[in-house]
Specification:
This protein has helices at about 1-35, 40-75, 80-100, 105-170, 180-195, 200-210, 220-230, 235-240, 245-255, 255-265, 295-310, 325-340, 355-360, 400-410, 415-425, 425-435; strands spanning about 170-180, 270-275, 290, 315-320, 345-350, 365, 370, 375, 380-385, 390-395, 395. It is mainly alpha-helical and about 425 residues long. The strands form five sheets. It has a three-stranded antiparallel β-sheet with strand order 1-2-3. Strands 4-5 form a two-stranded parallel ribbon. Helix 5 (about 180-195) crosses helix 6, helix 5 (about 180-195) runs antiparallel to helix 10 and helix 8 (about 235-240) crosses helix 9.
Length: about 425
């Protein structure tokens, strides 16, 4: 009540002093306008008139306002509210005298009163913040759940795709490891935290090892502890749980708040491992499945080609799939995969190997040549009736004479070379034909 009374008297005093201040400032405008001369004299006259009018207007209403303020003060002094204020002031004065009688300082009491007011304001602010914090925590939990659901949906879609490819090819298998591609995650943490290239190298690796390489059953708890540390900066409990160095964790707490939130929500990608069935191997024998990373360049090419051919049904363009493959692999793998895939998708293959268009049963072969620096379809000009000629493009199935001759010349070295090779392989080819 004493404080509220002081506020009311202060407001009344300010209203009383308003007119005096306004008149002084308006008069000051007249004094400043009087300094203008020359071409600014008309401006000075106008400002002087405005200032005079304002002073006259203020003085004309000042008496009425002061009368209303006096009436307000008189009514307030007789009000029950003022009676309570007077009683509170007497009680406060008596309490101060009692404090003095006990050897306590009234000034210290006033300071404690002010501190009590500030404490109550702080408590009110904290209670308001607590309500907002609960709402924000709920929103954070919903956002994190939505993010995990999105990651899981992407994981399920990826595995469905890989299972489809594996079932179609019969030669590929895939294994899946959750959140194990930690290399990019480590780079993200170092960049986001602003850690120099040679700083805390082992510490960041130890963090990734503890966080993502441990038991999958405890993964959610480790991620929650990591997020709690980044949001609360609680170094000691996280250091005890993870075994990481406190100095490194303290360095992470100095990172900007938004950057720490980004690190808290960053997840490593999954690792997909592919194995392929070796030529002549049996699917039921684990030793016949070889990791693609351990295969030869030709084996890796064949495995990846099988993956591409059995993924999707849209048209597919292959540029020289025979690269890094010997002819045996081309005949046993590439041609086999092309013949199987051609029934459910369109394949366009650029090749220099005769096995692909001939043994792959290409429906249409287009022979190309470099004509004056431009890639063009090879054509043959033939005479027709009445001395006219037509240009016949070398396009069509293998049965087309032009196409067949192009394959023999470009891919086999010519008919003579083809026949000569057959003669040299006579024993094998004769036995094969007989069989």
């Amino acid at each position: 009540l004493v404080c509220e009374s002081a506020f009311a008297h202060r407001a009344s005093s300010r209203l009383r002093g308003f007119f005096s201040i306004a008149v002084v400032r308006a008069t000051g405008c007249r004094s400043e306008a009087a300094l203008l001369t020359g071409e600014f004299l008309p401006v000075a006259v106008a400002l002087d008139e405005l200032s005079s009018d304002m002073v006259a207007l203020l003085m004309s209403i000042e008496d009425g306002v002061r009368e209303r303020l006096n009436k307000f003060d008189a009514e307030t002094a007789q009000s029950p509210w003022q009676t309570m204020v007077d009683a509170a002031e007497r009680d406060l004065e008596a309490y101060k005298q009692e404090l003095q009688a006990q050897g306590l300082s009234p000034n210290e009491f006033s300071r404690l009163q002010d501190e009590l007011v500030r404490t109550r304001e702080a408590v009110d602010s904290l209670e308001s913040s607590t309500a907002k914090l609960a709402e924000e925590q709920t929103q954070t939990e919903h956002a994190w759940t939505a993010l995990l659901s999105l990651v899981e949906a992407r994981r399920v879609a990826r595995m469905a795709l890989l299972e489809m490819v594996a079932s179609r090819s019969g030669r590929l298998r895939f294994t899946h490891a959750r959140a194990q591609d930690t290399g990019p995650w480590i780079s993200f943490v170092r960049t986001t935290a602003g850690i120099r290239e040679n700083g805390y190298v082992q510490d960041v690796q130890d963090l990734a090892q503890w966080l993502w390489k441990g038991s999958e059953a405890e993964l959610a708890n480790r991620v929650a502890a990591w997020q709690t540390f980044l949001t609360t900066k609680g170094v000691k409990p996280f250091a005890e749980l993870s075994g990481l160095k406190p100095a490194f964790l303290i360095r992470l707490t100095t990172v900007d708040e938004s950057a720490r939130y980004r690190m808290a929500t960053e997840l490593p990608q999954d690792v997909i491992s592919m194995t392929f069935l070796m030529e002549g191997g049996r699917p039921d024998r684990p030793e016949d499945w070889q990791p693609i990373v351990k295969g030869s360049p030709g084996q890796r090419t064949a495995a990846m080609l099988a993956f591409v051919l059995h993924h999707g049904k849209e048209p597919l363009v292959l540029d020289q799939p025979e690269d890094d493959l010997d002819s045996e692999w081309i005949f046993k793998l590439v041609v086999k995969e092309l013949r199987q895939s051609r029934w459910h998708r369109q394949l366009i293959v650029v090749s220099h190997n005769a096995n692909i268009p001939v043994l792959g049963d290409a429906e249409q072969v287009i022979a190309l040549e470099n004509r004056a620096g431009t890639l063009a379809v090879r054509c043959t000009t033939e005479q027709v009736a009445h001395g006219s000629s037509v240009s016949i493009p070398h396009v069509g199935p293998v049965e087309s004479p032009h196409v067949r001759r192009d394959i023999q010349a470009i891919m086999e070295g010519g008919v003579a070379a083809f026949v000569l090779r057959e003669q040299k392989y006579n024993n094998e080819t004769r036995a094969h034909k007989a069989a």
